[in-house]
Amino acid sequence: MTSVLAPVAVALSLFAVLFGAMELGFRLGRRVKRGDPLPQLGAIQGATLGLLGLLLGFAFAGAASRFIERQDVIVREANAIGTAYLRADLLAEPHRTALRSAVRSYTELRIQLFLAIDDAEIARALNGLDQAEEAMWLAAMAGVDRDRSTMMGVLPPVNEVFDLLAVRNATTDRHLPITVLVLLITCSFVSLLLIGYGCGRDRKRQLLAAGSFAFLVAAALSVTFDLDYPRRGIIRISARPLEAALNGLRPMESPPVKEGRTEP
User: Is the pTM above the cut of 0.85?
Assistant: First the structure.
């Protein structure tokens, strides 16, 4: 519930700030004598809104591309886990069973990372994954030492699983720079301030039109932030590829995990 309320609170706060900017501009505009010429106001408003649209477009496109990239890495990781599990067939017993068990444990821990929200839970999940990686590697190395001909068939898929986890962690930490976020909010504030100023000069609030614009800008900003921080927002990355991979790794007598969870 907290992870849902946080982005809603951000959206409402943004709307309040932008609506406040519009009201401030309106009050400033009312102080100007009616009829005082200001032919540049329309051009300034248009240029500011154009800059806002440009910044919002680039920020939204970047956040959306990073979101898709994160989901693609999950699919690649699930495929790599399935391949590593199948390549265990190249090993003799008991190394075959040891590697399969290690891969299953790793996948279960990997899904647990999706459920982790706060930093302490994430740190514990990552620590467990480090131990699971070591178990997988030791099981694979023990099997390869017994039969060197299986080295190229077993070790590269196992190593790819580790590499993709590193890639996934890197993409999770990739966000819009703080300076860009500050510039976006500042440009939005100034745009609504100028719109309110124009309404104040005309002595007409235009609450429906200007308020709707403030709502849309606040919504666009909040969705951009939500896409860029999928762990803590409403928009989540799906864990289904990993859950489907885990279902394929489980023994036949084990009940399948329920699909449909999403990553915080």
Answer: no
